[in-house]
Design goal:
By secondary structure, the chain is mainly alpha-helical. It has helices at about 5-15, 20-30, 55-60, 70-75, 90-100, and strands spanning about 45-50, 60, 65-70, 80. The chain has one domain (about 5-100). The protein contains 5 helices and 4 strands. A two-stranded parallel ribbon has the order 1-4. A two-stranded antiparallel ribbon has the order 2-3. β2 (about 60) and β3 (about 65-70) form a beta hairpin. The protein is globular. The termini are far apart. The relative contact order is 0.18.
Length: about 110
């Protein structure tokens, strides 16, 4: 009730604008995920706040119809994990490798 989530949602607005290379990367990921319409580029830093019940595939990507996960969708933006202790331990462990290496590899 102190406004943490509201403050977190405002973070992208105080971050510096996307550089041309970053803009292209963010737009490509959004396009692959089907979140970018009409061939437009996005100029906003992403803000992703997945629910604590999100699956491992939803967080890091994959699934039957492979698509980027929340980690990839938050590239050059903010991945906000509200209620962090409520996330499944396996899901948090799956985030360790992308955070350490900066790469998200799906096999």
């Amino acid at each position: 009730g102190s406004g943490k989530s509201m403050l977190a949602q405002r973070l992208p607005s105080i971050l510096p604008p996307l550089a041309p290379k970053e803009l292209l990367e963010v737009s490509m990921i959004a396009s692959v995920a089907g979140e970018l319409g009409e061939g437009k580029l996005t100029d906003r830093r992403p803000f992703r706040a997945p629910h604590h019940s999100a699956s491992m595939a939803a967080m890091v990507g994959g699934g039957l119809r492979v698509r980027p996960g929340e980690v990839s969708l938050a590239h050059h933006g903010v991945l906000f994990l509200d209620e962090f202790p409520e996330f499944a331990p396996q899901t948090l462990d799956a985030l360790r490798q992308p955070l350490e290496t900066g790469d998200c590899v799906i096999a």
